[in-house]
Automatic annotation (TrEMBL):
Coiled-coil blocks: none
PANTHER family assigned: URIDYLATE KINASE, URIDYLATE KINASE PUMPKIN, CHLOROPLASTIC
Binding positions (UMP): 54, 74, 135-142
Predominant location: cytoplasm
Catalytic activity: UMP + ATP = UDP + ADP
Designated name of the protein: Uridylate kinase
Enzyme category, top tier: transferase
Keyword ATP-binding belongs to the record: yes
Organismal lineage: Bacteria, Pseudomonadati, Pseudomonadota, Betaproteobacteria, Burkholderiales
Length: 238
């Protein structure tokens, strides 16, 4: 059997990916399917770090947060990611994957704090590490947390799991001529104003020469094809 293309990856899961077709929250079937993919990756011997979003529960700039102090709303968003991380770790436990949640904000009674050497140790031991609470700072996103933790963990690539199957030349919902890029450089993506991740996350990946793979979380087998280095989604390269 062919070997995985990567030894260590950082997987960014948006909170919305957990919703399935529900309007908010965590859809049981969806999280189970996702975790089955994660289990396959872990069993292939790939060290897996996960950054989970919180948009399915709370988004700092959402209408519900209007009038709220931005930083306060953002802390609520970060707490939402902790809930998702707990749900994800629990779903992993059900399928025999050992996971550890580490939070960027201190809530020790619930999850352990993020400590870089400890996270690296868990990865080396074959445990999945789920990073919760984003960067721990308001005014940032979990995409930036993915770029940051991916760099700190020396991951070979950031895998951005989304609802679309990659980066298109235009919005495929609006433009029938939109084409999917299989590969694109950071510079080309900037020149063509393509939104791959938010600007801070994108700049950090580019500076750190950390490639990004955008792929569909809903497409069966896509995550494993990405891991095996097969053609799937869009690779953003240096
Ligand atoms: N957030 C934050 N700092 C971070 C990460 C997240 O303040 O480092 C807040 C922010 O309010 C954001 C929310 O948490 O809207 C949820 O994160 P995000 O929008 O990145 O989640 P996703 O879109 O991936 O579900």
């Amino acid at each position: 059997m062919s070997k995985p293309a990567y030894k260590r990856v950082l997987l960014k899961l948006s909170g919305e990916a957990l919703m399935g077709d529900d309007p908010y929250g965590i859809n049981r079937g969806t999280i189970e399917r996702m975790v089955a993919d994660v289990a396959e990756v872990a069993k292939a011997g790939v060290e897996l770090a996960v950054v989970i979003g919180g948009g399915n529960i709370f988004r700092g700039v959402a209408p519900g947060a209007q009038g709220m102090d931005r930083a306060t709303a953002d802390y609520m968003g970060m707490l939402a990611t902790v809930m998702n991380a707990l749900a994800l770790a629990d779903a992993m436990r059900h399928v025999g994957v050992v996971a550890r949640v580490m939070s960027a904000i201190g809530i020790e009674q619930v999850v352990e704090p993020y400590v870089r050497p400890k996270a690296l140790q868990y990865l080396e031991e074959g445990k999945v590490v789920i990073f919760a609470a984003g960067t721990g700072n308001p005014f940032f996103t979990t995409d930036t947390a993915a770029a940051l933790r991916g760099s700190e963990m020396s991951a070979e690539i950031v895998l951005k799991a989304t609802k679309v199957d990659g980066v298109y030349s235009a919005d495929p919902k609006k433009d029938p001529d939109a084409t999917l890029y299989h590969t694109i450089s950071f510079d080309e993506a900037i020149a063509q104003h393509l939104q791959v991740m938010d600007a801070t996350a994108f700049a950090l990946c580019r500076d750190q020469k950390l490639p990004i793979k955008v792929f569909s979380i809903t497409k069966p087998g896509a995550m494993m094809r990405v891991i095996m280095g097969e053609e799937e989604g869009t690779l953003v390269h240096v």
